[in-house]
Amino acid sequence: MSQLLTSRQAEELHKSIIAYLSAIGLNESASALRKESQIGDSFDDATRKKYEGLLEKKWTSVVRLQKKIMDLESRNATLQHELDSSTPTSLLRKNQDPTSWLPRSPARHTLQSHRQPVTCVAFHPIFSSLASGSEDTTIKIWDWELGELERTVKGHTKGVLDVDFGGPRGGTLLASCSSDITIKLWDPSDEYKNIRTLPGHDHSVSAVRFVPSGAAGSPASGNLLVSASRDKTLRVWDVTTGYCVKTIRGHADWVRDVAPSIDGRWLVSAGNDQTARLWDAASGEAKTAFVGHEHHVECVAIAPPASYSHLAGLAGLKKAPPAGSSAEFIATGSRDKTIKVWDGRGTLIKTLVGHDNWVRGLVFHPGGKYLLSCSDDKTIRCWDLAQEGKCVKTLEDAHGHFVSCIRWAPSVVKDDPLNGAAAGANGVVNGGAPKKDEPGGQKMNIRCVIATGSVDQNVRVFAS
After folding, report:
1. 3 state DSSP class of 24
2. What is 9-78's CATH number, 1.20.58.100, 2.30.42.10, 1.20.960.30, 3.30.1490.100?
3. Higher pLDDT residue, 301 or 18?
4. Can you tell me the mean pLDDT for 432-441?
């Protein structure tokens, strides 16, 4: 006792115990303790009243404090776990080259809230927000780092078929399209308020993409949006006015997907007429038709300049196209279960065979070496363009049902958050690739994050 309490503290404790024993009628015990602890006649009625109840108060205080400490320790452990699992830098493997990173199971997060199949996903260019659209008519906004639902955006009256972030520099918008024949624009900076609805298509709108503007290396602020529809047309919209500035006709059936080139000069579309088509974005003139699939073409992707050196070999070219050019190579995925890689003149240079069902989504690795695909066979496959398109990785059962969409988090400019925001918002097409070494000497920082959506109603985030 002497090691823990001073003599005065010990005396106070003894008096509190004697007062407690007296209060509950254990007078003999109280007397014995007074005798053994040498507390004599000084312990009168006034002293007893002073110490009465003190022991109980101390006891309950200790219990309350213990509970508070336990609660705080539990909360601290939860926050530490959240920090460890959510901070990308803490999860980056040392010496890992982001240009060779590929997704692996299990997914970092499985995001659950949709009540119908998930049809589309898109990353915010700056923040850790991820949008997903579903046949349940809603758009969900998630924090992909934390794996938490931030909000549900409602406005469409039928299934949401595609979403994309982009827009004028410094003013990122979210665009969505739906089977209800409309395109809607939402403002992320104003609680995703619906700021404009774009009517004009005559049937379901299958895909929307913001179109970057300006030559490679210039500030790529874009106020144009392109949409693809079941009415067989592509439409180009000015998001600042809401006007349709161009209608592009040429497909003979439902247009399923559209992708703009990194400089906004070209558009590639694909559809149920079993073709993909290359268009001049400025004039709307058809440049090339890609013919060879034996079923509906579900998806298209334009190769980034980082892929040119690998694809040039596949195409039999002695020299890769210049990095400043765009739409030199494209990939298409079809219900015929194949992926086809073409040059910009419409020549088929490789057919990738491996999926056991419809190919539903394609994305080129920003590092340029790989092409990733998702399919109704529930897998994600990684194709190595440096090895003649060999499938080098398969994520079996990436979802519990058909995998309907795949997107890559857009890259950001290193060490320059302001320019990174602008370039991320517009210079990097969502799910596309960054521009290499811009004139200002800036380099793009690849984010090793992929999101997928599925008929199993889940969104999954695969991250390093």
Report:
1. coil
2. 1.20.960.30
3. 301
4. 41
